[in-house]
Amino acid sequence: MIKPWLFEFLPELGGPNVEPDPRDVAALFARYLDLWARDEALGFEGIFFSEHHFGRSYSASPNLLIAAIASRTEKLRLGVMEVVLPYYHPARVVEEIGMLDHLTGGRLEIGTAIGVPQELIRLNMTMAEARDRNDEIVAVLDAALANRVVSHRGKYFSFSDLRLLPRTLQQPSPPRWTTVVSAESARRAARRRIKISTGFNSTQVIKRIFDAYREEADAAGFEGSIATGAISRLRSLHRAHAGAISASGPA
Length: 251
What we know:
Layout: E1 5-8, H1 22-39, E2 46-49, H2 62-70, E3 77-80, E4 83-84, H3 90-103, E5 108-113, H4 117-120, H5 127-146, E6 149-153, E7 158-163, E8 176-179, H6 183-191, E9 195-199, H7 203-219, E10 229-232, H8 242-248
C-alpha cells in the first residue's frame, strides 16, 4: 500500500541582501510547527525534513526540528532526508540518533546522504572527499547500531572503545534510508539492506532505479518491496471551499 509522507523544506525569509525581522523568523518557526502537528490528523504517515546550509532554508539542523515536533505528535514517523554525513563526526551522528529515537518514542527514521556540491564547496570540500567521509561515517554507523562498544581507524576519524549512548529504542535499528540517483547507487543501498528514496526524474529513470534495487535485493536475500522505497514528487494541496464542492456536484 502506498503511504503519503511529507518532504519538508523550511524556506528562509528575506534573502542575500534582505535581513528579516527576527520576530518574523520566530513566527515562521511557530507557524510551521503548528502545520506539522496538524499533519498527523490529516493522515500522513510521517515527515522527512531536509538539511541545507548557507541560504534559502532554515533547516541547517533538522534534528532540532524533529525534537521540537516529537512532543506535539503521537504517531507521525519523523526523520531527515537526509543528514549530510560529511559535515559531522560519526560519534555525534550516532548519539543524536539514539537520543532522537527515544524522544520520538521509537518513531525515528534514519536518512543519510553525501550532500550537494554547491553547499559542500562553500566549506572547500570536494565531492570526492565528501564521498570518502560519507563511506567512513556509514561504516561507523553500521558498527555502532550493531555493537555496544565501537573502535575505528580510518582516513578521517580514529577512536577506540567508545560507548555511544543511548542505544536506540527501536532494535536492532530504526528504519534506514538513503537517497539514490542511479541504478548503481540503488544496488549499493540494497546490498546494505537499507531503504531508498529517489525522485524528480522521469518515470523511465525511476523504474530503472527500482528495478536495479529489487534485483540486487533479491540477490542479497533482502525483500526489496514497495515498503522499502519512496518517490519524491511536488504536489500542491489546498482546502476546497464548501461552495465550490457543492457546485461541482458529487465526486
